[in-house]
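call fold(seq) -> tokens
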Amino acid sequence: MDPCPFVRILVGNLALKFPVASKPAFSGVHPSSSPCYCKIKFNNFPHQIATIPLTPLDANSPDPHTQTVAACFNLNKSDLKKLADNKLFSKKPRVKIAIYTGRTGKTCGLNSGKLLGSVSVPIDLDGVESKPCVFQNGWISVGDKTEKRAAAQLRLSVRAEPDPRFVFEFDGEPECSPQVFQIQGNVRRQPVFTCKFSFRNDHNLRSRSSLSESSSSGGKERKGWSVTVHDLSGSPVASASMVTPFVPSPGSDQVSRSNPGAWLILRPSQGTWNPWGRLEAWRERGTSDGIGYRFEDVTGGNAVIVASSNLSTKKGGKFLIEVGNDRGRGFVMSSTVEGVGKYRKPVVEVGVHHVTCMEDAAAFVALAAAMDLSMDACRPFSQKLRKELRQHSQE
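ret:
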């Protein structure tokens, strides 16, 4: 399997220090005694927000071996080509950081932060597909120095590093038992897996696994969904099985966080299926109109949470797993998730360091299918699901 080139732009190691002002040059609270945050932007990518810790003026520089990441921008081959083409006719791309005093969010419809200043770091992406590059690592002045006030200083690091990934695309919706292709380059698509969706009533699976739970549904439940991933020879190499039914909470028609539905992601080994991961999903309460999820790694015997977030039911988003390493947050996998009612062909990206064989990749494909199907499993029970997701007893 050949990976696709990806590059990560990482911004981190943030710290802010202010000169001691004998006479404040502005009204209000001195920034050294109030919280600060920043908006980090790279070209046309959505901006990211991070808090900035304050550092005493005479403090030593942070340990250069310590890496913290405040923002990360992932560039695929198409992004890299577009930036290279644009560079021929315009200036180099830049990471721009606007620093604010105050708290994030809005008050009475207005931004609550006050702009302190901004910095800009030019980025040259030539050659970064094969080797890392550091563009900034140290202190930089924020704003202009005047007779009345010295400029504040921001410490930051900006670097790029290659992050090759295997990319897979479902050729249809998971409940329609599609093929899965590996994407190589811009146009090459090679079939690598097939998916088989089915309804399973596997009491043995649920009884032998301490990771499954029982639920009382009161007659309403979505249960028994299963996706088995096969290689091209027809051998099963991974599976996603719904082990805890998705049921409405008492007095409502929605799956609640207190009683989520759950999937086991399984891998075959010596004639049996072994748990690899557990995915829980539920409907978020309130005005967010989202699907909450939590994914746990269960390979070591104990469940370790490695991903927890939410997705919009209307817009969808990306299911993402990142884990900590000595360079900050390391990419593991992501999969696209469309909003409810939209046609779905999930695209799965997996970091090359997490794939040593086809079975490794198949487990992530099964996980992506489970996350995609959870969007339907969490729909209000007043809504009727498509026929592929209904058992004959529910017709």
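The first strand starts at residue 7 and ends at 17.
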